[in-house]
Amino acid sequence: MLRRLRGVLLSFAFLVSATLCSTQGYAQQPAVPAPPVPVAVAVNCEPGWIARVYRDTRASVVRIENVDGLGTGFVFYTPRYVATAFHVISIGREITVTSADGARQQATVALVDPAHDLAILLLEHPIAGARPLEPSTDALPVGTPVLVIGHPYALLDRFNQNLEGLLYWSATQGIISGRSDEYIQTDAAVNPGNSGGPLLACDGRVLGVVSSKLEAEAIGFAVPTQHLSNLTREMGRQGPYTGKWTGGWGLHLWLQDDPTFTWLGFGVGLGVTAYDRFTTTLRFGPLWAGTTPPDGPILDQSGFRWLGELSESYRLLLLSRPLPIYLAVGLGVAASIDRVWQTTLTQQGTQTGAVRSHSTDRQVWPMATASLLLGSSLEISYAFQWKTSDVSASEHRVLVGIPF
Q1: pTM for this model (two decimals)
Q2: Fewer C-beta neighbours within 10 Å, C or N terminus of the chain?
């Protein structure tokens, strides 16, 4: 009996020991942490925060000008770098940066991120009194107060002196209206000239880079600074930025002069411009002409022409303000198909009569062109079209066009 009881006790002790060892072993396993969940950080902005943030950050906000217009930027990353929107500098022409104290200097494009409409410029030298603005990584909730500093419609002061000094370094207040990984939506007023400026929290840190707005009331967008911080990792990896390619079309009036006719007509032009410098243009359209010879057997003449031109030109920037003016010089080729009708007085014996006849002529000529471009509003162009078989029969073409 005692032997059986001792066996039961030993068995129970063994089971208890095994259970304890198993429990301790499980407790010693490292716990797998749950993935972090972004938490919106509420911000309490004290009264008067707008004046404080504006005062503290204004010196770090700059004006950016090039032939494509005007935008905003801010000192970021180091004292010699300026962050802005890509579309502000995308044309690829010279960039002038003006600081809050009125000092001007040139800048070059250091980094671009067209997918997120971001760019970083390298200044010739640091801006006196300006510090790099600190980015914010907080996921601030909808309703958080924000401030935008920029230069909305600032070029208007060149046409209305009463606006001088009012439209530069303007401040507008709003809230965060919505957010995603790609954009922060705000109801703070943003307009042309604000692009590239900072969207600021009440602690003075940058939440985003102003990018665009909808054609609606108080719906603007800024790119979160996380994308801007990611762009700085490309330092030293990107090659020089030379500009973008653009395309367009236009309508034009055509005047063509040859030894026989003065042709008048209209046409359509299609063009592609690389880096705001090299332009390939295709033009085509119908022209009409008619003459009444003074005396002689030909009573009247009329013609119909299909004319086409293909040219390659280089654009020289003559003036950038108040609107860009270019001189474009180039070479190309012109081709025409002419249908000419004439009425001729003929005499057969004692009978006199008029005979109507027509002819078709096809021609191809080399040509040289020179054009004056007034921004994107007007083009005045001249071309000399050289007939190699008979130089005296060469033609002159004048064109007035409206680009779109």
Answers
A1: 0.79
A2: N
